[in-house]
Design a protein that fits this description.
By secondary structure, the chain is of the alpha/beta class. It folds into 3 domains: about 150 residues, FAD/NAD(P)-binding domain, CATH 3.50.50.60; about 120 residues, FAD/NAD(P)-binding domain, CATH 3.50.50.60; about 130 residues, Enolase-like, domain 1, CATH 3.30.390.30. The strands form 6 sheets. Strands 1, 2, 3, 4, 5, 6 and 18 form a 7-stranded mixed β-sheet that branches. The N and C termini lie far apart (about 65 Å).
Length: about 500
């Protein structure tokens, strides 16, 4: 059968851009359909604007806290409107450099604006500016992403709440901001707006923030945020929301206690849901599950020629995993190489200050599974670069097999944790043990050296007093025999 295109990609975010680009470079004819602007959530509502405001807030914090660097604390003065304009300029710069349609059209990709839905398993209909048109594809990639999920709280529709999609369109800085959700988005924005002068309260039903990270990480971050002025209402559910004059009142319940929280603005950071409702998946025979579109390890849906990648699958909510899954899908579809999603080495980072990073198995997972492992720790207080930059609050924890030093997982909290966790992810993916990391020369003074120093602890714990005694006997050495316990750090 002759199809209009070899590959049709529905969605022009990180996943769709990667899939379409790979299809074109592999010689396939490609159509990419996007209902809004290319770039998706990451460019317009997520990674780019959030990291831009985090950087501005960090600079603001450093101005006010310059005494920690031997300078004089300064007075912060800024225009919120100018800050928002800066965020918008950065978004446009990223879009122009990496996302605009001409870049992909120059690769031979047809870019179509409009809302796509399936007509049958090989055909979609696109409602675009010039009406509805149908296109058929040999392979179809669903990359429609996800949107903010707002739970059905009583009264929520009576207030003008914010999500990540509207937060960066604020015209005025709120004096009081309530954030529902203590995950990465809620935590990052709590710190950013607090540092810019807003009084922030974070509400979460769980008893700790960053619940997917190590408990030590969430404890350290909560303490840091409290020191900066963030208030927390943990273990508390939101029973209802109401408008009170120009403000918003949240009724919170903790146990049997009901109390109120007043705010000028409300940010709902309560998770995301896959964008599937408009796709008409039933006529294509594509199965869904609670989190999104069901896929196998090769990103195939219940229809083997239809793939789903990125947030729409409900599996991972990371831009880097969207790109990874797109590579897996295109490799399977176009090269016929049976590659599978790498679920063992998925890193993630919360870009607070300090950053919180993780990769591989968690310490709790390893303990629950009964696997043989040991934790190798190294504090940021012993990383000279961190000390010189007054960033000594943090830690590195590596979980590895004591016999071979094979890395099973890692947690890093501290400055540049995202860069350090990338080193551990690379090591895990390529079978680089702690011994090999320890034997690798790292430049001094860098944060990366902290990763090597953590790896050194494997050697410390492998130290054999018996072997030392033999060496003393053979070579007539006169020093003491040192023995190190699991909590000793050198």
């Amino acid at each position: 059968m002759a199809y209009d295109y070899d590959v049709i990609t529905i969605g022009g975010g990180a996943a769709g851009l990667t899939a379409s680009g790979l299809a074109a470079t592999l010689g396939a004819s490609a159509l990419m359909v996007e209902s809004e602007r290319l770039g998706g959530d990451c460019t317009w509502y997520g990674c780019v604007p959030s990291k831009t405001i985090l950087k501005a807030a960090k600079v603001a914090h450093q101005i006010q806290d310059a005494g920690r660097y031997g300078l004089h604390d300064g007075n912060l003065q800024f225009s919120f409107a100018d800050l928002m304009a800066h965020i918008h300029r950065v978004r446009e710069e990223v879009y122009e450099d990496a996302d605009r349609p001409e870049i992909y059209e120059n690769l031979g990709i047809t870019v179509q604006t409009g809302l796509a839905r399936f007509v049958d398993e090989h055909t979609i209909e696109v409602d675009g500016p010039n009406g509805a048109r149908r296109y058929s594809g040999r392979y179809i990639v669903i990359a429609t992403g996800a949107k903010a999920f707002v739970p059905p709280i009583k009264g929520i529709d009576s207030v003008e709440y914010l999500t990540n999609e509207s937060l960066f369109e604020l015209a005025e800085q709120p004096e009081r901001l309530a954030i529902v959700g203590g995950g990465p988005i809620g935590t990052e924005m709590a710190q950013a707006f607090t540092r810019l002068g807003t009084k922030v309260t974070v509400v979460d039903m769980l008893d700790r923030i960053l619940s997917k990270d190590h408990t030590d990480a969430s404890t350290l971050m909560q303490s840091r945020l409290e020191d900066e002025g963030v208030a927390f209402e943990l273990g508390a559910g939101v029973r209802k929301v109401a408008r009170d004059g120009k403000g918003i009142v949240l009724t919170l319940k903790r146990g049997a206690d009901l109390h109120s929280l007043e705010a000028d603005a409300l940010l709902m950071a309560t998770g995301r849901r896959a964008n599937t409702s408009a796709l008409n998946l039933e006529v294509a025979g594509v199965e869904t599950h609670r989190g999104g579109i069901r896929i196998d390890d090769r990103c195939r849906t219940s229809q083997r020629h239809i793939y789903a990648v990125g947030d729409v699958t409900g599996e991972f909510q990371f831009t880097h995993m969207s790109e990874h899954m797109s590579k897996i899908a295109m490799t399977n579809a176009l090269l016929k190489i049976p590659m599978k999603i790498d679920r063992k080495h998925v890193p993630w980072v919360t870009f607070t200050d300090p950053e919180v990073g993780h990769v591989g198995a968690s310490e709790q997972e390893l303990a629950d599974s009964g696997r043989n492992y040991r934790t190798y720790r190294f504090p940021y207080s012993k990383v000279d670069r961190a000390v010189t930059e007054s960033e000594a609050n943090g830690f590195i924890r590596v979980y590895a097999k004591p016999s071979s030093g094979k890395i099973l997982g890692a947690d890093v909290v501290g400055a540049s944790a995202g860069e350090l966790i990338s080193e551990f992810a690379l090591a895990m993916k390529n079978g680089v043990s702690l011994r090999r990391m320890s034997d690798t020369i790292h430049p001094y003074p860098t944060y990366g050296l902290g990763a090597r120093r953590a790896a050194d602890q494997w050697y410390v714990q492998k130290q054999s007093p018996t072997l030392v005694r033999i060496l003393k006997t053979i070579f007539r050495y006169r020093g003491p025999v040192l023995e190190f316990g699991p909590d000793d750090i050198l």
